Amino acid sequence: MSKIKKIKISSLFYLSGFLFILAETILHIYGKSVCSTEGCKVVESFVKGGNLVLLIAGLILFGILFFISFHKFSESLISFVEKVHSSILIIALSIEGYLLGFQTFIIKEFCVFCFTVFGILFLSSLFRIFERRLEIILAFTGFISVFFMTYVINPEINQIPSNQYVLVYSKGCPHCEEVIQFCKTHSISIQTVEAKKLAGILKSLKIEHVPILVCDEGETKKFIIGQDNIKEYLLTKASTTNTEQGVCPIFEKEKCQ
């Protein structure tokens, strides 16, 4: 009786994972998602084929695990099937180690969807240990090893600086050089950042061209793309600033600028 109960609990974990990913897949088709964080968008931007590839892989993963845990195999196959079961969990948790390490140490944004899937796989693996499938310890070892390897191996993806004006440029781009010279001529203070240092952020925002001017306007940030658009924006802002300087209020002289 206890053996039947264990199989049902294992199946329940995998079924919940399958239904969760199925729900996300349906939402994805309609342009929605259970995860609205920036981390989800950035992770998706680094996956070839986009989020749909991860969703299909997840459906296949939990579909196979559910079948293995629910189906009654012959006695001659049980030992082999159990090894396959554990091997799939070891591989899956190792992959989760990279996905979570990537979010924790590199983009510093977190994907709710990824953490939910990890939680289901973690509980499933933990339950396998309670079933005395000690090879599952390799799953946790793999997860921890890959998780921390992302910190050691992968370069940091820089965040956009918090200056008022940040110009994202590429070396050898004549339009970028034109904007930089324009700012020097008009004494406009800007901070320059090479585009490759912000590759993850730019991909998530689907920005594919430079120069880009990132404008910090307090509660909002503007992304202005293209040489002419940037120069026009900066000229407008410069003229507004100039009219506010070198003047004195008639009735409040203490506020003279």
Spatial shape: elongated
Strand-residue proportion: 5-15%
Low-confidence stretches: 1-6
Helices, by number, come to 9
Rg value: 26 Å
What is the N-to-C succession of helices and strands?
HHHHHHEHEHEEH
- What would you call the structural class? alpha+beta
Number of domains: 2
At the fold tier of CATH, the topology name of the largest domain is: de novo design (two linked rop proteins)
- Report the CATH C-level class of the largest domain: Mainly Alpha
Gross CATH architecture of the largest domain: Up-down Bundle
For the terminal residues, how far apart are their CA atoms? Answer: 85 Å
**Total number of beta strands:** 4
Mean pLDDT: 82
CATH superfamily of the largest domain: VKOR domain
Largest sheet: 4 strands, mixed
Please give the order of strands in the largest beta sheet.
2-1-3-4
Give the % helix.
55-70%
Q: Name the assembly state.
A: single chain
